[in-house]
Amino acid sequence: MEQQLFILPFDHRSSFSKDLLGYEGELTKKQHTEVTALKRIVFDAFMKVVSKEKARGEFGILLDEEYGGAMLREAKKFGVRTCLTTEKSGQQEYLFEYGDAFKAHLDTFAPTFAKALVRYNPANAALNKRQLTRLKQLATFCHANGYELLFELLVPATEEDLKQSKGKAGYDKKLRFELTVQAIQEIQRVVDVDIWKLEGFTKVQWGKIAETVKPTSRVIVLGRGADRKQVEQWLKDGAAYNHITGFAVGRTIFEEPLKQFISKKKSREQAVDAIAKNFKSFVTLWRKAKKAA
Length: 293
Hints:
The chain is α/β, with parallel strands linked by helices. The chain is 54% helix and 15% strand. The chain has an eight-stranded parallel barrel with strand order 1-2-3-4-5-6-7-8, surrounded by five helices.
């Protein structure tokens, strides 16, 4: 069986500054420190779980350089996998966070994975062509320098998609899956992807996804900020396939405890404990599902 991969992603930027703390625009030094402190709570929860694990290589964190540089370095020393985000935050088009200097920034942190969040609907041909040019450049650099490419694929609905599907619920039920398969086929003709980070599907749909990705690629399941019950079902369904080897679930794990910490309903220690408990529960669920499969 492929080595499993349990990633706690908290590379979100606006989700912390705007959604959790209500800060708009460029942050002051004090506000920046507050965001970093929230991320440190998530990091401490991650470390609390991993410190009790023998197979540390199965665990990873996904962080941004802006707030998480120190934590990425600490995690690497601890023997877990590190994932560094490469995209400019909040953009509909994949753009390098640091432009042409992305290579130097990757070399500075030397992560296990370079992560690219990409919104790709096959209908957007011109946009996709521009994105694929940059992504091929990223993949080529990664594979020449010992990094793996972790490709987070989101397939946003066009207005025509929503019309055809009679709304977002209809789109999520069928068309998003069909377009995801098409997107994977188009992308992997150009870009060599090591790990696909994908939104959840049904068990039958996951089977088609597993058949679609190249034999050299793996798949992990993202949480999409969905409620716990939904994410658990996605994980159980995905675990049935050898190509699907883990998850990267973030907001479902840390968002509520952080909100309770911010509103002073939880102490810092209680927030760390709650996030650690949530993360560990998903690891346990995945391991049981894989064993049963």
